[in-house]
Write a sequence for this structure.
């Protein structure tokens, strides 16, 4: 077991190996550290979820694409990015999309003290409410990193943790739309086989920067366009799965 694992190991999970502990704390569909929302049971039901925004370089175009298809999506917003671009956060809400808490500064909560976890959740919650008038009901941990006490802290302030079950790998700078769509299709096929819907992790910004136009974010927009154009799919939000 590594020293790192020892330092972050809460008493409740002593006995898990370091590898299993990392899996439980980082793997998006693991339920070992507590239940998280993944998707519904209808394979044609898809949630498009966009993390790390808002970004003036990409969010406005994304909103136009979603509006053209009358599709509702979910935006897990970073509090500090909302402070920089409050009008964009309001535009997301006014367009009828669901917003969620993605912490104030995007740390990996797997490695954060419980005090820091609570602060990150509270600050983001207050920032989103003060900016948009909406109190978020959903929370996605940055990088998917969580522990049992992280999920408990979120639930204590009324947040339902939402992970994902399709990873688009759209944060990798070299990925074009074809490659990203291949990852998505692989995930959609796996979920269809399991008889469940899909919750796709996408990004309309980088957690490090919201201003720079990026090749990979442009690819995300193109992937969104192609998914929305497919017949037979219904686009939903985690609210449908409670
Ligand atoms: Zn993120």
């Amino acid at each position: 077991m590594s020293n790192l694992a020892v330092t972050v190991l809460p008493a409740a999970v002593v006995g898990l190996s370091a590898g299993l502990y990392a899996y439980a704390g980082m793997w998006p569909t693991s339920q070992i550290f507590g239940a998280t929302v993944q998707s519904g049971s209808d394979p044609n039901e898809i949630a498009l979820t966009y993390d790390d925004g808002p970004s003036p370089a990409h969010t406005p175009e994304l909103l136009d694409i979603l509006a053209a298809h009358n599709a509702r999506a979910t935006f897990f917003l970073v509090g500090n990015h909302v402070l920089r671009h409050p009008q964009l956060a309001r535009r997301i809400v006014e367009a009828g999309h669901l917003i969620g808490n993605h912490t104030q500064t995007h740390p990996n909560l797997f490695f954060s003290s419980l005090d820091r976890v609570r602060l990150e959740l509270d600050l983001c919650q207050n920032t989103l409410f003060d900016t948009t008038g909406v109190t978020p009901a959903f929370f996605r941990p940055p990088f998917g990193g969580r522990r049992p006490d992280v999920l408990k802290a979120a639930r204590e302030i009324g947040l339902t943790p939402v992970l994902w079950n399709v990873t688009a790998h759209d944060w990798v700078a070299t990925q074009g739309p074809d490659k990203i769509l291949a990852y998505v299709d692989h995930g959609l096929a796996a979920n269809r086989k399991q008889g469940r819907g899909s919750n796709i992790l996408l990004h309309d910004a980088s957690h490090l920067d919201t201003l720079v136009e990026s090749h990979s974010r442009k690819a995300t927009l193109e992937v969104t366009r192609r998914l929305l154009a497919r017949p037979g799919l219904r686009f939903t939000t985690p609210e449908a799965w409670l």
